[in-house]
Amino acid sequence: MNRIISKLQFRRSETSATPPEIAGHIDGIRDQDIVGWIHMNGRSEPLTIDLLVDGQEVALTITADDHRSDVEAAGFGDGRHGFHCTMPTTDGYGQPWQDGQSVLIELRLAGTPQTLMQQQITLRSPETDATILDCDGRIEKLTETYLRGWVTNRQNVSQILRADVLINGTFFCKALNDQPRDDLVRQGLSKGAGGVRISLPLRQLGRGTHEVSLQFPDGKLISKTVEVRGDHYRPAPTARIAPADCAVIVPVYNAAEDVAICLERLRAYTPPEVDILFVDDASPDPQIARLLEQARDIPNLRVLRNNHNLGFTGTVNRGMAEVGRKHPILLNSDARVTPNWIAGLLAAARSRPRVATVTPMSDRAGAFSAPELGNDNGLPPGVDEITFARAFRRRALGLYPQVPTGNGFCMFIHRACLDEVGALDVAAFPRGYGEENDFCMRAGRAGWLHLIDDRTYVFHDRSKSFGSAKDGLMKAGRAVIDARYPEYKKAIRVFSHGDDLALARMQARRSQADCLNPRVSLPRTLYVVATQTGGTPQTNLDLMAALQDSRDAWLLRCDSKHLVLSHLQDGKLVEIASRELSDPIEPIRHVSTEYDETVAGWLQRFEFEVVHIRHLAWHSLNLPQLAKLAGCTVVFSFHDFYTICPSIKLLQDDGVFYGGDLQQLTGEVTPSFGSPIPCRPPEWVGSASGANASTEHCRAAMLL
Asked: pLDDT at residue 470 above 80?
C-alpha cells in the first residue's frame, strides 16, 4: 500500500503547472478514454472541470467523481476524484492523431480560464499498447443483479484497467479493476487493487439464459451464463393522454434549412389531431417567413411571430401560454422527428404517476444520446434516419429511465406540473441553456418525475441558432443551476451512469446491427380477423403475402376466449404471443377489459404503424380507439353487415330477410358469431356503443 501512495505522490510532483492546492495525475489514454484523477486540498466535493487537448475543448463541465481505490488508499477522502472522457479521433484541424505524437492535456476549473493541471502525453495506437498488456482475470460470481471478479495486467500488476462488459455479445459498460483484493496481492497478481464488481440489470432483459462477458484491453474474452427467472417490476400505468390534448411548440430563430426539415418531418409523422405551433422569434432571415407560410397546409398548424426578439426562453413561454390547457411538447427547430414519436412520448408519460417531463433519446443530445453518450452518433453506412428509428423502437425495452432533468430539444411537459411549479425562468435564462434544467429541478423538489423515453429516437443538430455564443451560454446557465441546486451535480452523476440508461444504449447498439437486415426497415401492419376459416382469413393471408416485400405483416385473431398474435415469417404464420381471456368477448356487450389491456400492451410493444381490421367479430369494439391512441393508422374493411346487425345476413330468427331496415324488423335475430343469444339489433348496437361508432377512429374504410 505504501508503494501505491509513493507512486501517487510522484505523479503529483511530475505534473507541470499544477497549483499547490491541487493533487492529481493525468494517467494517459486507455481504451480511447483520457483517464486521471484530480483533488483540491481541503475540499471533499469532487471538482468540476473542462478538459482540453492541445487547446481543443474535448469535454466541458465534467465532474471528477469516478471512484479510484488507489486514490482512496493514498488518503484522498473516499477516492471519488477520478475522471474519464472520450479522446477525439482528430486534432483541432480535423487531422487524425499519429502514433507517438505528443499532445498537451489541460484541465481547467469548469467555466473559467484557470488551469488546474496540464501534462504532455504520448499517444500510442492500440497495437502499440497491446504489446505491453498480458491480461488475466476471472468471473467469480454472476447473478441477475451483479458480477464479481478480477482483472490484472501481468506486465504491470499495479495498473488500473478498464474491461468491457458485454451482455449477449453486445457492449454494455466498462468496468474498472479498482476494488481492493488482498488475495491477488498474495499471489503477486496485484499491488492492492484488481477487483471488479458491477451491477447488472439482467431482469430487465426478460426471462431466459443470458451470457455476460469481460473483454480485457488486450482482447482476451471470458464469459459466463446466468438464468433469469424473475420478471422486471413495472408500475401500473396511469390514465391515457390523448394526442388531441397535446400541442407541439417549435421556437424558431433563423436556421432556415433546419426549419424546413423539421416541418417536413412534422408533416409526415405527427397525428393530425395534435396542434402544432411555430413561434418565430423575429428572425431576420426572410426565408423563415416564407417557409412558415408555405407550411400552413399542415393540419392544426399555427404560426405566431414575436414583434421583437424575446429570446429562446421567452418565446417558449409564449408558446406554452398560447396552447391553453394542452400538454406542451417542446421541439427545437433543428430536431427531426420519426414515426410514432407522439405515441411514444405519451406512453412514457403515463407509465407511472406524477410524470412531469419525457425526453426521447437522440444522436446528439448529450447524456440523452445513444448508442454512445455525447454528441457524435453516426448511422451505419447506407442506413437512413427512419430505418434506424424503427429498428431502435423495436429493440427498445420500454424501461423509461428516471432522470433528474429533461432536455428541451424535445420534451413533453405535463400541464398539471406546469400549473404547479410555473413556467420557465426567463430572467435567469433569457436565451436558453439551463432553463429546462431549472424547471425540472423545481418540479423534482415538488415530487414530480422526469423520464427518458427509451423507445423513441429523435434526431438533433444542436444549437445552430446560438452560433458562437453557445459555450458562454452553457457555462453561465450551469453556474446558475449549481448555485440554486447543490444536489444537481450528484443527481447528474448518478443518472449518467444508471443501469437502465446503459441498457437503453446497449439496445441501440443492437439496433444498429439490426439495420443490416432490410426487413427491419419495413413498416409493420397488423391485420385483424375473427375466424381461421372462410373467405376473409384466406383473402387476408393472400393480401399479407402480396405485400410482404413492402410491409412487415402480423395477424391478430380471437375466438372470444383465445387471443393470438402471429407474425408472417417466410410465408408462414408464427405465434408470438397469446392470452386466454377469463373475461371473454360476447356479442352483446362486445367489450372486455382484459382484452383491451392485453392488446394495448401488444400495440405498444410491437410498434405497428397500421392496423387493418378485416372483421371485428370476437374483438373488442374499443380496438380502433386503442390502435389510434398507440399512434397507428387504422383501416376498416367491411365484408358483411356486422356493424349494423349481429346477423351478418340481415335475417330474423324466423328466416325473414329484413334488409337492415329496423322499421321492417318483426322478430329477434341470432348473432352469426359467438353465443346464440337472440337479440334485437337496436339492443345490440346500443349496448355495445355501436360497432359503427368504433369506425370514427379509422383513417380509411373499405367496402369489400
From this structure: no
